[in-house]
Q: What sequence folds into this?
């Protein structure tokens, strides 16, 4: 019953993964020199890849309990990776975890709920899988949009602010 949804979501996530690589390549000068942006790019790709992998798992013909175990492993691995990448992106700063990460991890944990239902042989929890997948797509698109529109603007703003200060000379 969830095969068509999973195939649609998985195909979307795979296509968006390619788009993210293009955006990162387009903004490579900024992403390559910024620890934060490199790790945020890795988070975005991780979201899309997790969504693609879990969609593939849902479309595989297999016992429901096996799907449940696989969804549990995928959700736990993804949540762990997202947390590690967020910590790496914030390393050396006083920033706290971004609220969107906290929300994403909580809702992404819905994949764990889907896995728990499936582990006991029930497909009643697949709505949690749907929520998790759709969140992965939305948050990934948001991350890609940030790279496209905001990467490097903090450096540009710093130069503009220096020019606006009377008596300061910008660095060459």
A:
């Amino acid at each position: 019953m969830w095969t068509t949804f999973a195939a649609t979501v998985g195909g979307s996530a795979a296509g968006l993964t390619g788009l993210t690589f293009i955006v990162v390549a387009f903004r490579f000068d900024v992403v390559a020199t910024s620890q934060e942006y490199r790790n945020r790019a890795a988070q975005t790709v991780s979201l899309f890849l997790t969504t693609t992998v879990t969609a593939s798992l849902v479309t595989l013909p297999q016992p429901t309990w096996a799907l449940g175990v696989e969804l549990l492993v995928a959700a736990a691995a993804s949540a762990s990776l997202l947390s590690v990448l967020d910590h790496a992106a914030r390393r050396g700063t006083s920033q706290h975890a971004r609220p969107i990460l906290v929300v994403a991890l909580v809702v992404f944990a819905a994949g764990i709920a889907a896995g728990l239902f499936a582990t006991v042989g029930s497909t009643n929890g697949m709505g949690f899988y749907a929520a998790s997948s759709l969140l992965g797509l939305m948050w990934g698109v948001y991350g890609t949009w940030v790279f496209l529109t905001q990467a490097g603007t903090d450096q540009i703003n710093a130069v503009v602010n220096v020019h606006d200060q009377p008596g300061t000379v910008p660095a060459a």
In short: Residues 64-90 form the longest helix (27 residues).
